[in-house]
């Protein structure tokens, strides 16, 4: 197989042109076979095979800087840059990341995981190159979905005005930008992507010197050409108005054309947008027919396209069902999502109440600000968003929501450790930053019953901004609804008080059983509300023992455990011994939630061991 002979981009460059189609077929087969075992982002990578091969034919990513936006399209890049033999470890503990990571390879120029930042990052690299008098190319690969984020336009606006040599490859798979249609457009697309066209254009510009726009004839011809382009390619003018040279649209599965166009973009030595059309899921029928289903997949049977395991009920689905019920009861309830209707469980609400459902695309800051406007005018907006993406709207939560005490409800999905997507996707910051915003109420259900109750509290009982945070996946063994109290004791014990919130109380209950075998009786306290924290709500539980353990799948600085300790100390009741079990200052890598909990000592055995160690040191 050709693929087995390629261990670096040099191998891609060395292949004869007539062998490239076979390489692309092998890459697609490799992707399907491997991602069917590990799970991951499949459809986007299948669509970017020829484009990635072309990039490695034209550029040298060991020196040139290739910046991915989001990173969903990076698998082929990883395969071609010496990581093929490790691909079976994709998204596994201590394995390859599903996103670009500079720690893995010099060919990964920058970390990725969130959308719309790539042009800004690439411009910074281009400016550094100029300031340091170095000679390398800078390019970014951004999907049309990421162009729905405002940061992308901030970057494009500044990059176009900068004049810095920079290539922006827009991979348009038809999800957000309409295709051009018509026979003349098709003909001109082919004409504009042929080498002869670019050589002529370069020669023609050269006739008028270094500043052709100062020549009256060139300027007149340029204006005529621009008017024609506006009629035939209305989308191209957006980029040209921002200072880019626009090349395209190009068939993203025609390797020969792609290579010629990328070579031309490199030679232009100015800000260039290369607009490429691709088919998401290309080459694998199941993914082509249903690209959204195969965007991010769990392990599946490559022969049938069917998942190997079907997930059970999830917090996201229960959230969505509850919101539909509440929306039927009160016409003020509306739902907002940032391009994640299915992921956040809002598809049912969108179907039932389409006029009250708003998908703002990949624009979380806009989503939060729009929710503030809805609330200010008397609606009850519910912004359902993954915890990691909620970080992108932090300023709006403060400035637009909290300062006015507006009744915006956040459904904070994927709270805590989420598993294989790794450090860019874990939801380990929201307990810290939401709790620090004055006026925010933060509720933490441990099961579906509490989720239903707390959503109703958030919508119809609480005032001001409210967040209901819940994890990925399903509930644990604890099924009681204790949501009517700010804090509750789930188990009596006089030796140690162990406290947590959300689904982690299941680990404490298991740890208590382990400790009981060693003669240690643990009191289990469950927080239902982590903000605001009131002394009178928690003080009754801290008179039993002098040892307190607080379990959290969040970072340590500013965590709930520290806040509880400080609150008790203010009232002269600081615990004699405080054990904080959390992530400390470490970003959690890829791996299953169970594996990561064991690594950080957050599982029942780790909790029990921490208590026994503390007691052992004292005895």
Quick description:
With 619 residues, this protein is an alpha/beta fold. The protein has 25 helices and 17 strands. Strand 2 (138-143), helix 7 and strand 3 (166-172) form a beta-alpha-beta unit.
Report on the structure:
- The chain has about 625 residues and is α/β, with parallel strands linked by helices.
- The protein is about 40% helix and about 15% strand.
- It has 25 helices and 17 strands.
- The strands form three sheets. Strands 7-6-8-9-11-10-15 form a seven-stranded mixed β-sheet, with helices on both faces. A five-stranded parallel β-sheet has the order 1-2-3-5-4, sandwiched between helices.
- Helix 12 links the parallel strand 4 (about 245-250) and strand 5.
- The protein starts with 8 loop residues before the first helix and ends with a helix.
Q: What structural class should be given to the helix and strand makeup?
A: alpha/beta
Low-confidence stretches: 176-191
Shape: globular
**Rg value:** 27 Å
| Number of helices, counting only DSSP H or I runs of 4 residues or more | 25
Number of strands: 17
Q: Could you give the distance between the termini?
A: 65 Å
Helical fraction equals 40-55%
Mean pLDDT, to the nearest integer, reads 91
Strands across the major sheet, in which order? 7-6-8-9-11-10-15
Portion in beta strands: 5-15%
Largest sheet: 7 strands, mixed
How are the elements arranged and paired?
Blueprint: H1 9-14, H2 20-38, H3 43-47, H4 49-58, E1 65-68, H5 75-83, H6 118-131, E2 138-143, H7 150-162, E3 166-172, H8 183-192, H9 195-207, H10 216-232, H11 236-241, E4 245-251, H12 255-268, E5 271-277, H13 285-289, H14 315-329, E6 333-337, H15 347-352, E7 357-359, H16 364-376, E8 380-386, H17 387-390, H18 394-401, E9 409-413, H19 430-435, E10 441-443, H20 448-461, E11 466-469, E12 487-491, E13 496-501, H21 505-516, E14 522-527, E15 529-531, H22 535-538, E16 547-551, H23 560-570, E17 577-581, H24 593-599, H25 604-618
């Amino acid at each position: 197989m050709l693929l087995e002979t390629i261990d670096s981009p040099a191998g891609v460059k060395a292949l004869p042109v007539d062998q490239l189609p076979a390489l692309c077929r092998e890459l697609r087969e490799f992707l399907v076979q491997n991602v069917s075992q590990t799970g991951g982002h499949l459809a986007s990578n299948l669509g970017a095979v020829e484009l990635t091969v072309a990039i490695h034919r034209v550029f040298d990513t060991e020196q040139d800087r290739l910046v991915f936006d989001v990173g969903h399209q990076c698998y082929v890049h990883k395969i071609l840059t010496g990581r093929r033999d490790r691909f079976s470890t994709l998204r596994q503990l201590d394995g390859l990341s599903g996103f670009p990571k500079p720690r893995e390879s010099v060919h990964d120029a920058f970390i990725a995981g969130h959308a719309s930042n790539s042009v800004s990052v690439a411009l910074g690299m281009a400016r550094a190159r100029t300031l340091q008098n170095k000679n390398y190319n800078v390019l970014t690969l951004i999907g049309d979905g990421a162009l729905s984020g405002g940061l992308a336009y901030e970057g494009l606006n500044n990059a176009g005005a900068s004049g810095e040599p920079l290539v922006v490859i827009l991979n348009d798979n038809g999800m957000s930008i309409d295709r051009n249609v018509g026979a003349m457009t098709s003909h001109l697309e082919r004409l504009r992507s042929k080498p002869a066209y670019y050589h002529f254009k370069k020669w023609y510009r050269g006739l008028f010197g270094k500043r052709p726009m100062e020549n009256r004839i060139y300027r007149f011809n340029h204006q005529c050409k621009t008017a024609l382009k506006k009629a035939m390619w209305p989308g191209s003018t957006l980029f040209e108005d921002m200072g880019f040279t626009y090349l395209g649209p190009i068939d993203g599965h025609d390797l020969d054309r792609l290579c010629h166009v990328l070579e031309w973009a490199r030679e232009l030595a100015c800000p260039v947008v290369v607009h490429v059309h691709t088919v998401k899921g290309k080459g694998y029928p199941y993914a082509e027919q249903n690209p959204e289903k195969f965007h991010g997949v769990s392990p599946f049977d490559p022969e049938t396209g069917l998942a190997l395991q079907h997930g059970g009920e999830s917090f996201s689905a229960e959230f969505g069902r509850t919101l539909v019920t509440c929306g039927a009861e009160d016409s003020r309830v509306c739902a907002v999502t940032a391009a994640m209707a299915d992921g956040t469980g809002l598809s049912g609400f969108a179907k039932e109440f389409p006029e009250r459902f708003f998908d703002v695309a990949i624009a979380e800051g806009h989503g939060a600000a729009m929710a503030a406007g809805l609330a200010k005018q008397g609606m009850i907006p519910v912004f359902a968003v993954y915890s990691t993406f909620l970080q992108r709207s932090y300023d709006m939560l403060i400035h637009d929501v909290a300062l006015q005490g507006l009744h915006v409800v956040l459904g904070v999905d994927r709270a805590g450790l989420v598993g294989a997507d790794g450090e860019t996707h874990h939801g380990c910051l929201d307990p810290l930053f939401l709790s620090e915003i004055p006026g925010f109420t933060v509720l933490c259900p441990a099961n579906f019953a509490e989720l239903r109750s707390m959503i109703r509290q958030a919508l119809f009982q609480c005032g001001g901004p409210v967040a209901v945070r819940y994890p990925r996946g399903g509930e644990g063994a604890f099924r009681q609804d204790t949501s009517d109290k700010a804090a509750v004791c789930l188990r009596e014990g006089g030796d140690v008080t162990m406290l947590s919130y959300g689904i982690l109380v299941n680990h404490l209950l298991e740890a208590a059983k382990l400790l009981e075998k060693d003669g240690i009786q643990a009191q289990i306290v469950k927080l239902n509300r982590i903000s605001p924290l009131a002394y009178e709500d928690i003080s009754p539980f801290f008179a039993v023992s002098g040892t307190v353990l607080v379990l959290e799948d969040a970072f340590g600085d500013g965590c709930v455990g520290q806040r509880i300790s400080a609150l008790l100390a203010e009232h002269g009741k600081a615990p004699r011994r405080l054990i904080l079990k959390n992530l400390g200052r470490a970003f959690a890598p890829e791996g299953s939630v169970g594996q990561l909990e064991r690594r950080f000592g957050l599982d029942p055995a780790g909790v029990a061991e921490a208590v026994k160690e503390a007691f052992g040191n004292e005895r």
